[in-house]
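At this stage, I wrote out one protein's amino acid sequence and its backbone structure tokens, and that material follows here:
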Amino acid sequence: MKPIQSRRGIPFIVTLSYFISFLAIRLAVIVAGSAESQFAMAAKAGNMPEQSFYIGRNIILFGYHIHHFYFGIFLIAAAGWIALIESPHFSRRQIAVIYGAGLGLFMDEIGLLLTWGDYHSSLTYVLSLLLAGVFVNLVFFPDFWKETRRQIRANPPRSALLNALFLKTQLPKVADNLTKATGKTELASLVFTGIMYLGVGVLILLYPRFVYYWVAGVFLLQGVTSLVRAWKENSSGEEEEEDAI
């Protein structure tokens, strides 16, 4: 059996690569103003860009706006293929870097995908921090999850609980009505946010010190969101002044 530090090495590399990739591409997009360019606005409105080829703040190929999440998917697929064929040209650490970088590129635009065009959606920060929390737990809290898994196996959920939730209540009907009454963006936000809050609430009850990590995550999320909104409003104000002149 491999030593604990050795087993944590690959998850740590994936986590670090993911963080660097996510932060680097988001900073590049914000500084370059790529999300507010004419091509981005045209694509968001469902229109085809007028140019067939363009590489600058955005990438246009054959008239299509190529988002960087495509590159992320490519890197994730490449890492999976290299790992499956056990290529002698790449070490496990190098594959971990490729995988983490691709995941960061993809997650940077997860909000854009779920909202059909809103790059600055708060869903990106919520889901990215949630994934980052999973990685951090894999690296720094493996013993906690090992004990949790042992407890679940020792005390499996009773079928009566599942019956109470799904068979003897109106929960499925409520979910169906919610799906019809709300848009896909709002539904996704409600589902992911609800699962996250329920999960964290249970963890806090079982392990009170977890509240420190949760509170810190909330403050970090709100801080990043506020800074992005401030940057966006400032950029919009400058564009309006230029148009007025």
The mean pLDDT is 76.
